[in-house]
Amino acid sequence: QVQLVESGGGLVQAGGSLRLSCTASGTTFRFSAMGWYRQAPGKEREFVAGISAGGRINYADAVKGRFTASRDNAKNTVYLQMTSLNADDSAVYYCTLGNRSWGQGTQVTVSS
Fold first, then answer.
1. Which of 8, 100, 101, 93 is nearest to 47 (CA)?
2. E strands within the chain?
3. 55-69 pLDDT, tens per residue?
4. What is the pLDDT of residues 21-46, one digit of tens each?
5. HSE (CB half, 13 Å, CA atoms) of 31?
6. Kind of pairing, strands 91-97 and 101-102?
7. Weakest-pLDDT range from 5-14, 24-33, 70-79, 94-103
């Protein structure tokens, strides 16, 4: 059984920062690509950041320069460091393993 558990979401003021974490269990984590997606009310789930098993990272244009993804294979954990948050970043953020397994999501709300 593969489980992905996100944490770190919350309420933050515009311009603030949050760090999301996603810890995986029940999988050979180090061989898997991991990613972050988000979904705001009324919108499709959108790609935010991805990190391959080899460490290649890519970002959606909307978050480039503000968000940083990383992975720690020893801890079976991926992170998303988010800075300079704005209202458009408000969404439920989901962690995915290989775009097949998904976490429950963690809510990020950015307020003014």
1. 93
2. 3-7, 10-13, 18-25, 34-39, 46-51, 57-59, 67-72, 77-82, 91-97, 101-102, 106-111
3. 999 999 999 999 999
4. 999 998 777 888 999 999 999 999 99
5. 3
6. antiparallel
7. 24-33
For residue 98, which phi and psi values (nearest 5 degrees)? 60, 20
- pLDDT at 26 (0 to 100): 84
Cα distance from N-terminal residue to C-terminal residue, the chain: 40
Torsion, Cα of 58, 59, 60, 63 (10° steps): -170
The span from the CA of 78 to the CA of 81, in Å, is 10
pLDDT of residue 103: 97
Taking the C-alpha atoms of residue 31 and residue 93, their distance in angstroms, rounded to an integer, is: 22
Residues linked to residue 5 through DSSP beta bridges, in sequence order: 23
Residues paired with residue 107 on neighbouring β-strands, in sequence order: 92
Quick: pLDDT tens for 5-21: 999 999 999 999 999 99
